[in-house]
Amino acid sequence: MPAPDDTLVLLRRWHAGERAAIDALIARDLPWIRDYVHARLGPLLRARGDTGDYVQGAALAALQYTPRFLTADRQQFRALVGRIVENHLRDAHDHHAAARRHPARERELPNDSVLDLDRSRQAAGQPPSVAARDEQEAWVRLALELLDPPDRQVLRLRQWQGLEFAEIARQLGVAEDAARMRFQRALPKLAQQLVRLRHGSVDAEPQ
Asked: How far apart are CA 36 and CA 100, in angstroms?
């Protein structure tokens, strides 16, 4: 008989302040996350360093920064964390991590927002959390973590750092019109990812 899926229990313990719970989650699925990320980063990024050397630290850093969430099971947890870690490593390789994570650049997320990605609990009669402004921002920030790096970058520069398009263009190394167009194309992608998350869907195919 397979062991019971303890993902939800460990996530709840982590959100209650138990550091050992998140360590256990990462240790449990680290081999799968490492293989998933290594396969998806491609030869160019893999050639810059041993992906396995970075995955564990990236997973911990990403989960500590990302809005808190609950998943239905281990498969959904793997799908979500694998995608977040993949993007986190892409940013690190492209030297964007410092700008993205700088505490002075973004408002800290509230500690009372825990996002439940399991539709079955809501369908079974548990209503979704109150749609407060802070919780909505947490949903958006989680959706943002799942976008491709170019889309995440332009949205962060515009929406979270409040930069003008001229400055965004300078940082991206493109023309101002190109920066504006990139932002306009990224917005609907964020909205679509947010809808998928609200329905418990994550863009990955864990085995």
From this structure: 23
